[in-house]
Amino acid sequence: MSRILVSMDGITKQFPGVLALDQCRFELHAGEVHALVGENGAGKSTMMKILTGVYKRDAGRIVYKGKEVEIASTRAAQNLGISIIHQELQLMPDLTIAQNIFIGREPRARLPLFLDDQAINDKTQALFQRMNLKLDPRTLVSELTVAKQQMVEIAKALSFQSELLIMDEPTAALTNAEIDELFRMISQLREQGVGIVYISHRMEELKRITDRITVMRDGTYIDTVRTADTTIDEIIAMMVGRQLYATSKPEISDKQQTKVLEVKRLNRGSAVMDVSFHLNKGEIIGFAGLMGAGRTEVARAIFGADRIDSGEIFVNGKKVSVKGPTDAVRYGIGYLSEDRKQFGLLVDMDVKTNLSIASYRGFRNSLGWMNQSRIEQNAEKHVASLKIKTPSVDQRVKFLSGGNQQKVVIGKWLTRDCQILMIDEPTRGIDVGAKSEIYKLLDELVQQGKSIIMISSELPEILRISHRIIVMCEGRITGELSSEEATQELIMKYATMRVGEEAL
Q1: What is the largest CA-CA distance in the chain?
Q2: Are 329 and 362 in contact (CB under 8 A)?
Q3: Half-sphere exposure of residue 16, counting CA atoms within 13 Å on the CB side?
Q4: What tens digit of pLDDT does each residue of 99-154 get?
Q5: CA 364 to chain centre
Q6: Which residues are CB-contacts of 80 (< 8 A; sequence separation ≥ 6)?
Q7: Could you tell me the strand order of the sheet in which 4-15 lies?
Q8: Which residues contact 216 (CB under 8 A, 6 or more apart)?
Q9: CA–CA separation, 443 vs 439, rounded Å?
Q10: Rounded to whole angstroms, how far apart are CA atoms 395 and 390?
Q11: Cα–chain-centroid distance for residue 128?
């Protein structure tokens, strides 16, 4: 094993009323990819914020490259060679790649008031050569894909001569091809002796890219294991400390013989082409496909968020005209966007407001005033039934975990009594324990007679809870599978074929 790059031992951090970290430890070797995993609230972020100088530890010691250090600020961490790449990239889209990488450290021209753009570009190009990246330093960041922007963030970190790189959910918004490109870069950095802390909720990635895995739970250190010597199930068991939702296929009920939604020959440009399918009462249909297959566009078209070119929509056997989301909601259709923070929640407002926002007219009294008592009663009911973990219904949503935020969005549409729910990426950015709770919730909803269209990029998730699976490629439906016949391999065949090609 290579030399120890950093060792954290006995790390304790107390916030008002909360013991965030209790005698935790973590160790990273040079040239190692070491995963740090745990549910939301396990203490991963707090641990890394202490390492990067955002928080000051209350107890414990940090030894970096053989010397005990005090990391008092993010600048101090950067000077030591410690950098972090956040899940939400922190780049300025209207600046060039080179300007983003060296912002605040730009070489000056002969006249002090002017920057030396050529020198910035040359330094960036030299950095790219080291990384084997084929990018033009003069390109605006706004013109890059998310994957390329992530490479720029890595280059920015390496420009500080970083020897320790922390990656927080680096693949959350990437396609499979982009993930492969990122993993190639990580392997290259590993060969150059860079130590990488890899934080991810995607368990299947750990086997591909990491050397060791450290598990945290409820602010405590659980264990560190070699990736090759453990299984994903063992890691999950350490993370959650409890039994998760069973992986058995959902049962088909008699309710599912009644069509609640039927879509015929739906078209919207090249994104949605001749799409036809139906949804039964008490059924979960999983929509699978690669990025850009058209799954989200189908949901947005049904919900009226995007105007269709042609096609017909039937709700409970009656043809309906959906010209906008207001029409869709009136017909009992709710849509949960994949970006819940931007399109599904008012994150700066409280839980009770978010739960009632789609049904405000129903909470008015005879004088037109909002009935705050009824709003609060509604919130208390859904917090209890959905098991939303919050100190009170007055808590602002932005302080809830990702899983509980997702439950609030679901509760918003249940308040509206929507019978058809379209849920886009229901567990994106959510830890395995919260995923299990979401799966249980969806199962309970269909048992109550709700009908669900679920769009997911995670094939194990699609296979786990769907009664039927519809696969799309390039705007068209290329296959439909029952839960019994579906496999990851078969779904991928349909997801990569054009209409008319043979899948088997």
Answers
A1: 80
A2: no
A3: 0
A4: 888 886 766 666 566 667 788 888 889 888 877 778 898 999 888 877 788 888 88
A5: 36
A6: 64, 69, 71
A7: 18-29, 4-15, 59-64, 67-69
A8: 24, 36, 37, 38, 42, 43, 44, 47, 222
A9: 6
A10: 7
A11: 28
Cα 34 to the center of its chain, rounded Å: 20
Amino acid at 411: G
- The whole-angstrom separation of Cα 208 and Cα 268 is 38
3-state secondary structure of 300: helix
The rounded distance, in Å, linking the Cα atoms of 10 and 356 is: 45
Q: According to the model, what pLDDT value does residue 504 have?
A: 43
Q: Which residue type does 31 have?
A: G
**3 state DSSP class of 237:** helix
Residues 435, 26, 219, CA angle at the centre, nearest 5°? 50
CA distance 310 to 268: 7
Roughly what angle, to the nearest 10 degrees, separates helices 402-415 and 432-447?
20
373 Cβ contact partners less than 8 Å away, ≥ 6 residues apart: none
129 CB neighbour count, 10 Å cutoff: 10
Identify residue 291 by its one-letter amino acid code. Answer: M
Taking CA 195 as the corner, what is the angle to CA 50 and CA 192, rounded to the nearest 5 degrees? 150
The Cβ-side half-sphere exposure at 332, using a 13 Å CA radius, reads: 15
As a whole number of angstroms, the distance between CA 335 and CA 337 comes to 6
Q: How far lies 280's CA from each of 99, 168, 451, in Å?
A: 54, 39, 7
| Residue range 28-46, pLDDT digits in tens | 999 999 999 987 678 898 9
Q: Which two tokens stand for residue 325?
A: 């989301």
The CA angle 450-451-454, to the nearest 5 degrees, is 130
The tens digit of pLDDT for each residue in 460-485 reads: 888 888 999 999 988 999 999 998 89
Cα distance between residue 340 and residue 346, in whole Å: 9
Cα dist. 392→28, 41, 287, 378 in Å? Answer: 39, 18, 35, 13
DSSP string over 195-218: EEEEE-S-HHHHHHH-SEEEEEET
How is 396-456 classified by DSSP, letter by letter? BGGGS-HHHHHHHHHHHHHHTT-SEEEEESTTTT--HHHHHHHHHHHHHHHHTT-EEEEE-
CA torsion sign, 294 to 295 to 299 to 300? negative
Which domains are present in the chain? 4-240 (3.40.50.300), 245-332+464-504 (3.40.50.300)
Predicted confidence (pLDDT) per residue in 332-345, tens digit: 998 988 777 777 78
